[in-house]
Specification:
NADH Oxidase, alpha+beta, seven-stranded antiparallel β-sheet, 2 domains, 21 strands, 512 residues, binds flavin mononucleotide
Length: 512
Amino acid sequence: MSAARAATVLAYHTRSKHALDQYAAGPGTLDWDTQPAAFRDWTGTSQTPLPRDISVADITWNALPAARAPMQFNAANLGSLLRLCVGLTAWKEHAGARWSLRAHPSSGNLHPTETWLIASGVTGLADGLYHYHNLHHALERRAWGGATGNGVCLGFSSIHWREAWKYGERAFRYCQLDMGHVLAAVSYAAALHGWQPRLLNRDSAAVAHDLGLDRTDDFAGVEAEEAEVMVALQAAATSLPEPHWQQWAGKPSLLDARPLYQWPVIEEVAAATCGAPPATAAAPAPAAIINDDGTDIRAAQVLLKRRSAQAFDGQSVLPYAVLHRILSALLPGGSPVWKLWTHPARVHPVLLVHRVADIAPGVYVMPRSDTARDSLQTAFRSSFSWQPADTELPLFQLVAARAGKTARTLSCHQDIATQCALTFIMVAEFAAPIAADPAAYRHLHWEAGMLGHIITLQAEAAGWRGTGIGCFFDDAVHEVLGIKSDAFQVIYHYAVGMALDDPRIATAPAYP
Ligand SMILES: Cc1cc2nc3c(=O)[nH]c(=O)nc-3n(C[C@H](O)[C@H](O)[C@H](O)COP(=O)(O)O)c2cc1C
């Protein structure tokens, strides 16, 4: 059974690859006027507006790693947390078009991830299951009665159609990368509130049940939501809420009245990758987080001002100290994310360095575990030199080269991949984890999304900027690195550089 599911996953991965001569199957035409709605309403629910203030506005970025007393679970602090991880951060306007941005990036700004909250014993909030309405920064009460325990869990689901509408078959990957960004965003926001987020070892069916996503009658005629994962915001002296809902309210709104295409392979791979995530280890090792960048920028400000660069200047040279901080944060223990994701590292960054001070342009790799170093060396080109490139980090130069044009070509010919200071290529341990548990296909993409999020926040804190790159030519990347089997596969790219802002785009506050 697991072998058949693994085969489905590998077949999906292969058919959703972009190649130099052919992109993965996607819509032939796009009508922007029919884009699925970015926000889902639950009509018939009661809506509770959340306070908009950030409770942790004074904490500096450098003080982020310090242990702090858990804040009280109340509506104000939960509102603050949600704003910092999944809330709106700005409205943008240009040439009559208006769109919102959120605390986490999303492929195509399509935001497939929906956020749920289970509250039990929270001051100022009736017990129940709530849908978080990002547009209004409000909670819609979807179910109640029967929750035991005391505390708060966040739940997440993906609406595949939001991504598939634009990206066709490859969209499942983007939903999973987005999920990884969200989990990382939750980790940073929770750390600021003194909460220790914990991934629950619930499988997809249990998550769907707890969040009411398996109530098929409620979803009749509208887009389904795929259960992803639940995260307990474990503060001291709380126990997990155990929901056995007795009452339900509301119906989900329709997002796209006239879907033009269907991509059944997405539901196939979703079914094949159902499962439970690796639960956060009960007692995570204390993290040695290296964060000191000599600035006193506020952490909440970094989270709220994070943006993806749409263009880089093609000339600024990234100080090596900034790259060192980014790389340190990617290593286990280097970021609050690794308190949530305690699973052994399985995704490893390759760096195409274009303009970084004190190191030569070239191709580098930083294996995130000792075992990966040996297996990557076996999988990569035998001509790579593996020269140690940093006295503190497991960073190796593979080859000295000007790789800007290569980075651009490999990243679907996007200029951002060459105008940035460096391009990251996330290489995942692949066939073995998926054979052992096909759900690993989701988890590897989450891990890559988490790496992307850490990169982007570290860059942002230092005055630089990152952009995710989900469009790349998979096997062309493998050829450059010498990867000949599916023991390793590339699953994400990320660019970091000095952003060029477009002065024509006006900005308005997220919640006026
Ligand atoms: C998984 C993922 C893939 C992305 N791929 C690309 C890409 O290939 N090219 C690009 O220019 N931006 C890409 N982006 C950036 C998004 O376009 C950006 O996050 C979105 O427009 C929202 O803007 P913001 O990040 O400033 O909030 C990607 C983002 C994510 C999370």
